[in-house]
């Protein structure tokens, strides 16, 4: 007999599976693996604001300005030989686009949200199997395979490339 922990939770009777937030994932990892039993690092954090045309003149008058960041994170469990990656997008509204402090604050919120979601995404692919005697086994959940796990670090950093467009 054993217990299996997956960083997801089910809501209601609809069998809808929701990801645990990054704080809960870190708490579970610290509890079962120890504080030195895992690590995470941000591979890339890129500003992707304006890619959907929202910064065009018409868009500026019709909607609030928002800041968007794309983040790729790698989680490593060295004692178990497991590593996985997660990618996510974080977005925050800029209430007053004339205030530079408001822009910086919104940027930080978007970065933090993207990093948290990416960490949660990476943890969703890890199965923690807790045995009755307290030992923990770790498996990579291959049913959650995603492209970020198979890209090189350079490919992940180049996930979004900005090319200048000549409007003349």
TrEMBL record:
SUPFAM superfamilies from the UniProt entry: dsRNA-binding domain-like (SSF54768)
Name listed for the protein in its UniProt record: RDM1 protein
Limits of the DM1 domain: 20-127
InterPro entries for the chain: DSRM_RDM1 (IPR057652), Rad52_Rad59_Rad22_sf (IPR042525), RDM1 (IPR040224)
Record GO biological process: DNA recombination; double-strand break repair
Source organism, top-level taxon: Eukaryota
One Pfam family this sequence matches: DSRM_RDM1
GO cellular component terms attached to this protein's record: nucleolus
